[in-house]
Task: structure prediction
Amino acid sequence: MPPAPPTRVLLISCPDRQGIVAAVSLCVLEAGGNIVRSDQHSTDLLGGVFFMRLEFLYLEPEQGDADFTSRFAPVAAHYEMDWRLVRSDQPKRMALFVSRLDHCLIDLLWRWRSGELAVKIPLIISNHPDLEAVAAGYGLPFYLFAIDRDNQAGQEERMLALLEGQADFLVLARYMRILGPRFVERYCGQIINIHHSFLPAFIGASPYERAYERGVKVIGATAHYVTAALDEGPIIEQDVTRVNHRDQVADLKLKGRDLERIVLARAVKWHIEDRVLIYGNRTVVFT
Amino acid sequence: MPPAPPTRVLLISCPDRQGIVAAVSLCVLEAGGNIVRSDQHSTDLLGGVFFMRLEFLYLEPEQGDADFTSRFAPVAAHYEMDWRLVRSDQPKRMALFVSRLDHCLIDLLWRWRSGELAVKIPLIISNHPDLEAVAAGYGLPFYLFAIDRDNQAGQEERMLALLEGQADFLVLARYMRILGPRFVERYCGQIINIHHSFLPAFIGASPYERAYERGVKVIGATAHYVTAALDEGPIIEQDVTRVNHRDQVADLKLKGRDLERIVLARAVKWHIEDRVLIYGNRTVVFT
Amino acid sequence: MPPAPPTRVLLISCPDRQGIVAAVSLCVLEAGGNIVRSDQHSTDLLGGVFFMRLEFLYLEPEQGDADFTSRFAPVAAHYEMDWRLVRSDQPKRMALFVSRLDHCLIDLLWRWRSGELAVKIPLIISNHPDLEAVAAGYGLPFYLFAIDRDNQAGQEERMLALLEGQADFLVLARYMRILGPRFVERYCGQIINIHHSFLPAFIGASPYERAYERGVKVIGATAHYVTAALDEGPIIEQDVTRVNHRDQVADLKLKGRDLERIVLARAVKWHIEDRVLIYGNRTVVFT
Amino acid sequence: MPPAPPTRVLLISCPDRQGIVAAVSLCVLEAGGNIVRSDQHSTDLLGGVFFMRLEFLYLEPEQGDADFTSRFAPVAAHYEMDWRLVRSDQPKRMALFVSRLDHCLIDLLWRWRSGELAVKIPLIISNHPDLEAVAAGYGLPFYLFAIDRDNQAGQEERMLALLEGQADFLVLARYMRILGPRFVERYCGQIINIHHSFLPAFIGASPYERAYERGVKVIGATAHYVTAALDEGPIIEQDVTRVNHRDQVADLKLKGRDLERIVLARAVKWHIEDRVLIYGNRTVVFT
Result:
């Protein structure tokens, strides 16, 4: 079948007031657009914050974003909106960060090549050389930044310089270093991490070991945006799997691998498709 | 906290065309309404069927449905809409049908009394006397219609006469008789059944016995609208649970009870809240 | 069909050594028993702790436990076993503790009356009068022990005196008071609590409120044995359900109710059937 | 840590009688073995079929299987056992069959290389050239047997000749041809297939299309042994995932890929570890 025509995604957040949906949908109509999907959420019945994700396409190909934007800008100003307009045919650029474990990396690359993740991957960054061959197998540039206690700040500056102009968002695919504050500042709401526990349980290091010690009957994984506070950023997605008394730490890690890659893949996909809006330390996810 | 003000739910289906959302939301705005939740779905990107569920409230209490309806009727006609407007403060009337198994009945009654199901229950109908005491415990009228091979048509006529004017929809909470065509005709899209398998597997009688024979590793339950074709109506909700080689038929039934009551409760709740739209033999469920 | 003949459950824990299974199964054989189910677990391949649950029945009704015990006692001494022998036809006595929320209580009582839980219920204890009618509906004695800051120790003494000789184990079915140390001492490994979060996340008060604040995408429930450290006892069972940005705290509580009752019911059933062995702060659960 | 010493897995099925466990465990003890895991199952409390999986290791390395076998053979004869003894350090040889879809293949190869699947892979067979590069990337021989209506029998003879002496079992990792009867005869109970539905729903072709048509709310995948009756062999494992009205057939396929690879991987792992016993058209799976 022919490819679906490219759509636009309009993302809005603003104080909830009467008439927003009418005003927005009128702009789309007048600019020749047809809404193909719309999701909205208010944090409260009255007086809350309003979030909207509107996907539309222009019925006449010659119609364009300039026309829409000129109509929409005054509406957005009137309702005090934060907003952005995204084209589905302009894929985001995703930089991958890895260390030694390959399961999340391989899973993301496989989904990318199979067309499931509509994204560009300009480069892979690692603090270990182990996964260079995987990158090579996919024809992707691999940059090694060995990090020790003394050189982290300098190495991170070099990473940031390398990334500048090349990446829209970063995915920490089991990257086992805590990124410094300069990263969080530069890529606010644009760094996705996978943590190998159902947060807020087992924040920090060695969650599987601690899950084993505690004797839990489910283990989990959490994909979240990175903020300055370790493992406390807005959660995008979580899932769990059952374990029992037979499972040693090594078994938890095996079972956890399957969880981690699926939870991370979902979060990355939703981020790419602009389905995730951050609100304080929480997320609205229009799946 | 004070009760939430009553809302309106507007349900629409029509051929998908440009401008529907703008036209509908303008009507709501002009009638003094504020949209608190909106969900929509198109069966195709272009040229499909459009479904919408719009929940709104009037900001001024004196405003009313007459005003809205007079504005909306021409819009609805223009877009060839099937539509209805429902008030959240006018609970539907639910008639329960049971036989001998009590788990679905008790679960629904408990949810109803706890306020989870905003519904009226005018009566309980059964073909067996077993559950009369349960009905009495909740102060609900219980009508026994013993049915054998010869009297089914006549008994069903009497049931229909009893129900007339008393019930908006019927829930078959493990009612172990197949309702005749007169019922399906009278309550089209208004009879919810719980089938104890993950349909379309194990259509018909004795699904747990047949699941055991087949050696499945999951069992399921399915809530669906009743149509003339047995167990083939539009599915509202399904869920499953794991089983293993240790589970005899009796164990499947025990595990299945927990599934059935939860799947049925979800379907009933969504129906009550007008979240389910039927489309051919499928459902759109705005959860 | 006729009822299954009563079985014996033999529970063993001891240092893992060669020959245990042979020695134990020989005792069963010589005492005229036939093993109908056997589960075992070693914490390590070599040098760990060995756990066994052996279910058997005597092929000749006149055979008895005295014979078995006289054969088994020297074996048990030789292998330094902790052990006990339980008859499936001597149901345990379960005392229920409740406060105001009824969902766990009603669920346990329904399972009990339907025959799913082979247990005696001598009494229900509460610190609030709210659920007295539920107890009465099942013909069960209900004892009210109103508790405030000043009288807790005294009230708990009176509860303990009332329970003495009447209860084998206690189930806290959303009992919203922390039991004092005298209880934990007297009923060590015999008090089951349901906590409304996936522990160790949200230990302590108001877990649903805190889950909402944290923006988690799954909520959970945990059944565990009560120890002196709040919410830190051995976990018997956990499960979770998905939530999203639409779920307010009230929605989490509704969804959580279904989780809590199912997780608690499983834990109680496994305890009744002697499937749970405590090992340090962890459990071995032979499901 | 050092590798675990190699264990033996003893698999038994026989008519259930008194004394089996004692007799078997005595043989293990006298041959110098220590039981590290034992699972058993009877199809009925009395008079059923007894299944056992016993994992043990010799405490003295010089002890061996000949000694055990000479002790065990008369016991096995006495109890009319079907049995086999498997060494954990002699990996099975797994031949993979694929067509064009790569997700199951890539997943199995990744698990194999990461050490999760203790197996040898002598070769990959396909009826399409598409996945040759994947095989090459793992250094595995790839054999193309193009099949059309006229040459299937001949091609299958050639495949069988190629496999002879090279493979212990076959995995159909989305191999989209029905294997002929000669295969089923030669590899009885040794061919694992992944079917992309929760069998017995949607037996045969195009299950995702039919699931979409039926409007199900869950889709599933089933790993089973291949028998002469299409999609009706003993089920090893099943799992499901939720779908909704937004999911088109293409979405079901995407979601299904994740299910298929995980369900197949579990089944393959359990088969490799001799955890699956076939009983009529059902399986006992000692996980």
Q: What stands out?
A: Residues 8-87 of chain C form a domain with the Alpha-Beta Plaits fold (CATH 3.30.70.260). The longest strand of chain C covers residues 33-42.
